[in-house]
Every structure is written in C-alpha cells, then in structure tokens.
C-alpha cells in the first residue's frame, strides 16, 4: 500500500491539462498540484462559462486538452432551491458537454461530485453502488452531471467527495474560526456526520491518478469510473467545530468562544432552505484498493489546513 502522493516527475509525459473553476477551493489547489504533470491551462468562470454550451465547446476545441479537470460547480446549496435552472446548467448539463467533447478528442475527463446525491438515511458509509436519492436541487443537479458523464461513453473519472475545505476561499473551517473570534457562544449541528476533506488532499489524489493514467502504454486499460474520495474517519459538524477551535486555542489564537462553548443542536432546529443528508460518510475502499492508496484521517488534514491558515 502507498500513501497518497505525487509520482516522480521524470516518469511522466507532459500533457495539456485544462482546469475549470480555477478560482474555487479545489481549482486553486489543483493548479499547484498538477503543475509537475504538464501544461496547466486554468480557466475561471469569466473565461469558461459553463452556462454557455456553445462557448464552452469552442473553448475546449481551441485548447484541445489531453485531460479536462472539471473543478467548476454551482455550490450554493440553499440558493440552488431558487436558482434551479442555473444549478442544473452548471452541475448537470455542462459536465455532459465536457464529456462529449472529451470523447470526441480522445481526452480524459475528471469530474467531481458530492455526498449530496444520497439522502443520508443509510446507517453506514455509502459505497459507489448504493442507491442515490438526493434531497435538494443541488443534489439532483450533481446527480444529473454524474449521469451525463457516465452515459457519454467518455473515458472519465467521477470522484465523489464531501465536506470540502481549504485555506483558499470560504468554508466551514473559516466560518467557525471567524465566529469563534466574534461570539461568546456557538450553536452547531450535531446530528449530521461526515468526513471533513481538504481540497489539497483531493488535488493530491487527482494528481496521483493522472500520473498513473499517463504512464500507461495503453490508457484504455485504466480503471475509469466512479470512486469515493474523502478523508478517513468521521465526525459531526459539532465535533468538527470543537476540533477546529481546540487547535486554534492551542495555537494561541484569541477566541471569545472556546471549544467548550459550542452547544450541540439538531438539524431540525436550524433553518435552511435545502434539505441535507444526515449521513455524508463515503466508503473509499474501492479507490484505496484499486490504486493502492491509504487516505489520512480527517484530523490530519485539518491540522495541515490550520497550519496554512495561521501561517
């Protein structure tokens, strides 16, 4: 078994890799991690608008990437309940267009999905073959994207992940740190569980998979398909918040609300426009066994992330 990490540059050819959504949490990390694999072409929303099919196809045909890494997405879960058409355009329709173009060019597509394709009613961690049943417009749009990529016949990797955070962009970790500085007491949901996963872990694993793909003499033999990618272990949002403020306090960060001043609450007591899965745990056995990886515990990623934030 091999812990995730980048393969030596000297063994890898240099393809052209297109990263969409380059200003997002994952897109930002992907640019840094993929630089050793080839020529990275990074495109943000302005340069590659996924809601404009014709323009999107034009961009792809001009760049002609060897690998398309789709890190773009409509991610505002609550707003998606109102902006359903936009959410589906970005999360559902665009991935199908990327897949069609990838197939036509003989390129590889890497697409990211989410735990929100499940309803959260399972007692254990979800495996790739479990029945999907999204509770929200966001979840339905992401599932539509998965289906479009799968049905396209393109050579593709679909990586489902959950509870993503990074030092770049807005996320739960940064929100808790900010609230901990400003408020004397916090109330955080305790009956939703999952595995906090850092964007740099997702980017590292992606780079590892691409390195292995590019080394093959016949890349058609690569094990394409759907995989779950998340940190090991699990916690609740409340447990996550406690861990965040515990480490912040240990680093000497001035807090009004320390880790002992976070009250656990029920999801039902917190007003949200969109329903969310109570269980977001993803079983990553398929990914680890197929590629010989060992994914780290979520606390490892959190400590590394806090080091980056407080650096």
Automatic annotation (TrEMBL):
Reactions the enzyme catalyzes: dTDP-beta-L-rhamnose + NADP(+) = dTDP-4-dehydro-beta-L-rhamnose + NADPH + H(+)
Keyword NADP: yes
Keyword Oxidoreductase: yes
Swiss-Prot/TrEMBL cofactor(s): Mg(2+)
Enzyme Commission no: 1.1.1.133
Transmembrane domains' residue ranges: none
Keyword set, alphabetical order: NADP, Oxidoreductase
Signal sequence region: none
Pfam families: RmlD_sub_bind
Gene3D superfamilies for this protein: NAD(P)-binding Rossmann-like Domain, UDP-galactose 4-epimerase, domain 1
Comment on bound cofactor: Binds 1 Mg(2+) ion per monomer.
Parts forming coiled coils: none
RmlD-like substrate binding domain residues: 17-308
InterPro entries cross-referenced by the UniProt entry: dTDP_dehydrorham_reduct, NAD(P)-bd_dom_sf, RmlD-like-bd
GO function terms (MF aspect): dTDP-4-dehydrorhamnose reductase activity
Pathway the protein contributes to: Carbohydrate biosynthesis; dTDP-L-rhamnose biosynthesis
Enzyme's top EC category: oxidoreductase
Entries under SUPFAM superfamilies matching the protein: NAD(P)-binding Rossmann-fold domains
Listed PANTHER family: DTDP-4-DEHYDRORHAMNOSE REDUCTASE, METHIONINE ADENOSYLTRANSFERASE 2 SUBUNIT BETA
Similarity comment: family membership: Belongs to the dTDP-4-dehydrorhamnose reductase family.
Role this protein plays: Catalyzes the reduction of dTDP-6-deoxy-L-lyxo-4-hexulose to yield dTDP-L-rhamnose.
Protein name as annotated: dTDP-4-dehydrorhamnose reductase
Protein species of origin: Ralstonia flaminis
